[in-house]
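Case study 2.
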Amino acid sequence: MTVFGRVVSGRRALALLAGAAVALALFVAPGDGSAAGATATASKAKLVKIKGFAYKPKTLRVRRGARVTFKNLDRARHNAVARGKRRFSTGTLRRGNSKTIRFKRRGTYSYLCTFHPFMRGKIVVK
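Prediction:
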Protein backbone atom coordinates (compact mmCIF):
# COMPACT_ATOMS: atom_id res chain seq x y z
CA MET A 1 0.00 0.00 0.00
CA THR A 2 1.30 3.50 -0.83
CA VAL A 3 0.55 6.42 1.50
CA PHE A 4 1.82 9.92 0.66
CA GLY A 5 4.36 8.42 -1.75
CA ARG A 6 5.76 5.91 0.77
CA VAL A 7 5.27 2.16 0.66
CA VAL A 8 3.61 0.86 3.82
CA SER A 9 2.95 -2.81 4.57
CA GLY A 10 2.00 -5.22 7.31
CA ARG A 11 0.65 -4.01 10.64
CA ARG A 12 1.26 -0.34 9.80
CA ALA A 13 -0.94 -0.64 6.69
CA LEU A 14 -3.70 -2.32 8.73
CA ALA A 15 -3.49 0.41 11.37
CA LEU A 16 -3.76 3.13 8.71
CA LEU A 17 -6.77 1.42 7.11
CA ALA A 18 -8.49 0.99 10.49
CA GLY A 19 -7.86 4.65 11.35
CA ALA A 20 -9.26 5.76 8.00
CA ALA A 21 -12.38 3.62 8.54
CA VAL A 22 -12.97 5.14 11.99
CA ALA A 23 -12.49 8.67 10.65
CA LEU A 24 -14.90 7.99 7.81
CA ALA A 25 -17.50 6.59 10.21
CA LEU A 26 -17.30 9.71 12.38
CA PHE A 27 -17.57 12.22 9.56
CA VAL A 28 -19.99 10.61 7.12
CA ALA A 29 -23.65 10.67 8.07
CA PRO A 30 -26.47 9.58 5.79
CA GLY A 31 -28.18 12.44 4.02
CA ASP A 32 -31.93 12.01 4.18
CA GLY A 33 -32.88 15.63 3.57
CA SER A 34 -34.55 15.90 6.96
CA ALA A 35 -34.88 19.14 8.88
CA ALA A 36 -32.32 20.02 11.58
CA GLY A 37 -34.65 19.23 14.47
CA ALA A 38 -35.90 15.94 13.04
CA THR A 39 -35.68 12.58 14.74
CA ALA A 40 -33.12 10.02 13.60
CA THR A 41 -33.98 6.32 13.77
CA ALA A 42 -31.99 3.37 15.09
CA SER A 43 -30.82 2.31 11.62
CA LYS A 44 -29.03 5.60 10.89
CA ALA A 45 -25.59 6.80 11.95
CA LYS A 46 -25.24 7.17 15.69
CA LEU A 47 -23.72 10.63 15.58
CA VAL A 48 -24.96 13.78 17.27
CA LYS A 49 -23.42 16.87 15.71
CA ILE A 50 -23.13 19.97 17.84
CA LYS A 51 -23.40 22.78 15.34
CA GLY A 52 -24.97 26.23 15.32
CA PHE A 53 -25.58 26.00 19.08
CA ALA A 54 -27.87 22.99 18.57
CA TYR A 55 -27.74 19.20 18.73
CA LYS A 56 -28.44 17.56 15.36
CA PRO A 57 -30.53 15.48 15.42
CA LYS A 58 -32.42 16.86 18.38
CA THR A 59 -33.82 13.38 19.13
CA LEU A 60 -31.93 10.19 18.33
CA ARG A 61 -33.50 6.73 18.64
CA VAL A 62 -31.10 3.82 19.15
CA ARG A 63 -31.13 0.19 20.24
CA ARG A 64 -29.94 -0.87 23.67
CA GLY A 65 -26.14 -1.18 23.70
CA ALA A 66 -25.63 1.40 20.94
CA ARG A 67 -22.71 3.79 20.99
CA VAL A 68 -23.47 7.44 20.23
CA THR A 69 -20.74 9.93 19.36
CA PHE A 70 -21.20 13.60 20.21
CA LYS A 71 -18.99 15.80 17.99
CA ASN A 72 -18.54 19.54 18.51
CA LEU A 73 -18.38 21.43 15.21
CA ASP A 74 -18.82 24.90 16.78
CA ARG A 75 -16.07 27.28 17.86
CA ALA A 76 -17.60 27.53 21.34
CA ARG A 77 -17.08 24.81 23.93
CA HIS A 78 -20.07 22.56 24.57
CA ASN A 79 -21.04 19.40 26.40
CA ALA A 80 -23.98 17.04 26.70
CA VAL A 81 -25.10 16.26 30.25
CA ALA A 82 -28.05 14.11 31.31
CA ARG A 83 -29.08 14.20 34.94
CA GLY A 84 -31.68 12.39 37.01
CA LYS A 85 -32.32 8.66 36.69
CA ARG A 86 -30.68 8.38 33.25
CA ARG A 87 -27.24 10.02 33.58
CA PHE A 88 -24.28 10.62 31.29
CA SER A 89 -21.80 13.38 30.51
CA THR A 90 -19.49 14.01 27.58
CA GLY A 91 -17.30 16.40 29.54
CA THR A 92 -16.23 19.64 27.87
CA LEU A 93 -15.90 19.33 24.10
CA ARG A 94 -13.84 21.97 22.35
CA ARG A 95 -14.09 22.50 18.58
CA GLY A 96 -13.36 19.26 16.73
CA ASN A 97 -13.48 17.08 19.87
CA SER A 98 -15.86 14.18 20.28
CA LYS A 99 -16.95 11.73 22.95
CA THR A 100 -18.65 8.37 22.49
CA ILE A 101 -21.14 7.11 25.05
CA ARG A 102 -22.64 3.61 25.19
CA PHE A 103 -26.32 3.37 26.12
CA LYS A 104 -26.87 0.05 27.92
CA ARG A 105 -30.31 0.69 29.47
CA ARG A 106 -33.64 1.32 27.83
CA GLY A 107 -35.33 4.64 28.39
CA THR A 108 -35.19 8.29 27.46
CA TYR A 109 -32.06 10.30 28.20
CA SER A 110 -32.83 14.04 28.11
CA TYR A 111 -29.69 16.14 28.02
CA LEU A 112 -28.51 19.74 27.71
CA CYS A 113 -25.37 21.83 27.34
CA THR A 114 -24.49 23.28 30.74
CA PHE A 115 -22.66 26.17 29.03
CA HIS A 116 -25.75 26.99 26.91
CA PRO A 117 -28.85 25.61 28.73
CA PHE A 118 -31.16 26.43 25.80
CA MET A 119 -29.43 23.61 23.88
CA ARG A 120 -31.38 20.43 24.56
CA GLY A 121 -31.59 16.97 23.07
CA LYS A 122 -32.84 13.46 23.71
CA ILE A 123 -31.59 9.89 23.23
CA VAL A 124 -34.37 7.28 23.18
CA VAL A 125 -33.08 3.75 23.79
CA LYS A 126 -35.34 0.86 22.76
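The chain has one helix and twelve strands.
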